[in-house]
Amino acid sequence: MALVVITGAARSGKSRAAQRLASARALAGAQVVVAVFGHPEGDAGFAGRIERHRRDRPQGFRTLEAADSRSWRESVDVEELLVVECLGTLAGLVMLEAGADADEANLESALDSALAEFVSWVAHRRGDTIVVTNETGWGVVPAYPSGRLFRDALGRANSALVTIADTSYLALNGRLLDLGALPCDATWPSE
């Protein structure tokens, strides 16, 4: 089992990198399933993004459009290379499931619990996995509590994934930085 995490900002090239990596594994004989999340109803821009991803995906890849945050896992064969596209939209789905009436503490608990459960599930998968995820904490602090909860919970999940990943990358303007090659702690400069 290998776990690869590719994180980055919007339009940074993370999905393209994950697709190229999965395509290379498919050429070596891997069966690929791409789990996608999100509901484009009423959002033409989001629907367009989903359609672009569909067109760009190789024909041999099986696509699994998840209707909820958990049951989709049962449809993933243990031997398939799983591409999760992406953890941010999965987190958004968890928030929708928690409901608009959930108070801040319950929403945070539900989100943290669901993401921790996902990280644990990925860590124990027998098959290979590529997780595409978003970096959300580099901009303006969200004005609403739900936005701050999303940002913080996704950041914690990203850190947990990168910690257990065999390989992890930060996509930046179409380039990949190998996060595993970078130090975990700051060091004092040499004299």
What proportion strand?
Answer: 15-25%
Distance between the termini: 43 Å
Summarize the main sheet.
Answer: 7 strands, mixed
Report the structural category: alpha/beta
What is the CATH homologous superfamily assignment?
Answer: P-loop containing nucleotide triphosphate hydrolases
The best one-word shape is globular
Helix count? 5
The helicity comes to 40-55%
Order of the strands making up the biggest sheet: 3-2-4-5-1-6-7
Low-confidence stretches: none
List how many beta strands DSSP finds: 7
Tell me what the CATH architecture is. Answer: 3-Layer(aba) Sandwich
If you consult CATH, what is the topology?
Answer: Rossmann fold
- The average pLDDT value, as a whole number, equals 91
Taking all Cα atoms into account, the compactness measure Rg is 17 Å
CATH top level class name: Alpha Beta
Structural domain count: 1
* SSE string, helices as H and strands as E: EHEHEEHHEHEE
Keywords for this entry:
191 residues, alpha/beta, Rossmann fold, seven-stranded mixed beta sheet
